[in-house]
Amino acid sequence: MPASDSNTHDWKDPRTLLCERCGYVIENLDHALPCPECGKPIIESLPHRAQGSPWQNRRSIWSLLQTWFMTICRSKALFGRLNIDEEASSNSLLFLGLLLGFLTPMLTILTVSVISIVQYGRSTFPGFMPIFLTALVLLFFWIFAVIYASLGTLRLRYFAHIRKYRLTQATRSAIVGHASLGLTIAPIGITGAIFVFILLDTFDLFDRGPFWLGLSMAGSIIAWLSIPLALIEFEILMHTGSKALRYRNILPPEDNPNA
Fold it and tell me: Between the CA atoms of 22, 23, 29 and 31, what dihedral angle is there, to the nearest 10 degrees?
């Protein structure tokens, strides 16, 4: 815990070098020494050590998938290596994640709808209305997710003020940009549930025993639970990111190729 020493949190310039564990000002101290406040080696708080996420280091489909995997499964490790000056990368990650997470299921549902219409030979096959309503729910939730994620930066700003964290605009953008991937749990769950319904309806399995009926009910439960689970995952990632990056140092402009 930071002490009440006047040097702790006594920073005005957002680029003031801080200990990334406790927030103690380590500007002009010998890099070979530990932090006087918490003992963390000063060299480990230097901004040059940040490796950056796979997506920040190289733009490719593979690095994007790697970053998504780390965000969901290894969030602490991911936030620990983020280069927070890569604000554009974080924003693009935000919108790529939300777009792919929501538009892909919607396009899939549309494709299945067209195939089913062709199969039934008319535009009013039995599963049309549930599929249409599901696509509508996904659309409205996508709009909500974009707004909810955008408000996350304002919440982090208030949170940083209360806790005396140094979460700059670039840092908040990086946190929200990665945490927003948690919101894609909702479209995945809803899409999975609608596919279960389509399969049961296509092969007329609803009346073939309690197993299939139970499967249908399980799909409905998953669809409804996916929305609160997505919001919970978003908040967990926001908390993990704000804790990991609360005193993250920023590369000087002359050393930052993206400045």
Answer: 60
Q: 3-state DSSP: the chain helix, strand, coil percent, rounded to 5?
A: 65, 0, 30
Dihedral sign, CA of 143, 147, 150, 153? negative
Query: 85 in helix, strand or coil?
Result: coil
CA pair distance 15, 258, nearest whole angstrom: 16
Q: Is 24 helix (H, G, I), strand (E, B) or coil?
A: strand
Q: How far apart are the C-alpha atoms of 95 and 103, rounded to whole Å?
A: 11
Specify the amino acid at residue 202. Answer: T
First and final CA of the chain: distance in angstroms? 33
To the nearest 10 degrees (0 to 180), the angle between helices 128-163 and 210-244 is 20
Instruction: From 53, 56, 58, select the one nearest 80 (Cα to Cα).
Output: 53
Tracing tokens 């799909």 back to the chain, one arrives at 219
Q: Is the pTM of this model over 0.85?
A: no
| Residue pLDDT, tens place only, 163-211 | 889 898 888 888 888 888 888 888 788 777 777 776 776 666 666 777 7
What's the one-letter identity of residue 212?
A: W
Structure tokens at 256: 């930052």
Question: What are the extents of the domains in the chain?
Answer: 1-45, 87-251
CA atoms of 22 and 247, how far apart (whole Å): 8
Could you tell me if 18 and 166 are in contact, meaning their C-beta atoms sit under 8 angstroms apart?
yes
